[in-house]
């Protein structure tokens, strides 16, 4: 069975400092992994995805994530936070076995000036 | 040129009523979905349709029924609304399968349903 755990429900950073949002997954197969962002009163938008190609995945808005199979992790990072990055972030896993995507419970990112 | 649009944006209704939420996508995608997001922002899939055929039903109450008149539309009809149905409902679409082969989901902006 597949599952995903976002280790922090809330992360607060200052503008210009690095961002780290942590995600661990469990999957019986080679998983596909995604990060989505949700701004207030908006739908979710894909940030990046991993599908067994390069382990370091670059996404939009300067975000990237690294797939580490040995650690079953897919943490999201950004070198320098911007105020507009404040949002809810979801880590998502799929094992490609025809089952539905599984969403993590989300991490709220707050950015202060 | 909104990719996935759903209406209404807000829906306030009383218990026992029947309501519908409409969703349309202009991306030419094969699969459409309905997700429910609760007050803690937890997202759970409710249904997906591929070429007008239901392929996932996550044991939601049968008061909820998806209706897909064509590949570009997937509406959600809810009978006998209950307080616990209050949530934000998101429509989404993807190019292939259930989005689990790397095909990303494209979401609508959500419908906030409040049952009083």
Which word captures the global form of chain B? globular
Overall geometric form of chain A: globular
Helix content range of chain A? under 10%
SS content category of chain A: mainly beta
* SS element count, helices of chain A: 0
Measured on Cα atoms, how large is the radius of gyration of chain A? Answer: 13 Å
Strand content of chain A: over 45%
Largest beta sheet of chain B, briefly? 7 strands, mixed
Instruction: Kindly report the greatest chain-chain contact and the residue count on each side.
Output: A-B, 25 and 25 residues
SSE ordering of chain A = EEEEEEEEEEEE
- Any low-confidence stretches of chain A, pLDDT <50, length ≥5? none
Number of helices of chain B: 0
Describe the structure.
The complex is a heterodimer of chains A (113) and B (116). Chain A contains no helices and twelve strands. Chain A is mainly beta and 113 residues long. The mean pLDDT of chain A is 91. Helix content of chain B is 0%, strand content 54%. In chain B, strand 4 and strand 5 form a beta hairpin. Chain B is globular and about 35 Å long.
Summary tags:
heterodimer, A: 113 residues, mainly beta, 4-stranded antiparallel beta sheet, 12 strands, 53% strand, globular, B: 116 residues, 7-stranded mixed beta sheet, 54% strand
Quick structural overview:
Chain A has 113 residues and is mostly beta strands. Chain A is 0% helix and 53% strand.
Protein topology:
The complex is a heterodimer of chains A (113) and B (116).
Chain A: E1 3-6, E2 10-14, E3 19-21, E4 23-26, E5 32-38, E6 44-50, E7 56-58, E8 64-68, E9 73-78, E10 87-94, E11 102-103, E12 107-112
Chain B: E1 4-7, E2 10-13, E3 19-25, E4 31-37, E5 43-50, E6 53-57, E7 64-70, E8 73-78, E9 87-94, E10 106-107, E11 111-115
Parallel strand pairs in B: 2-11
Antiparallel strand pairs in B: 1-3, 3-8, 4-5, 4-9, 5-6, 7-8, 9-10, 9-11
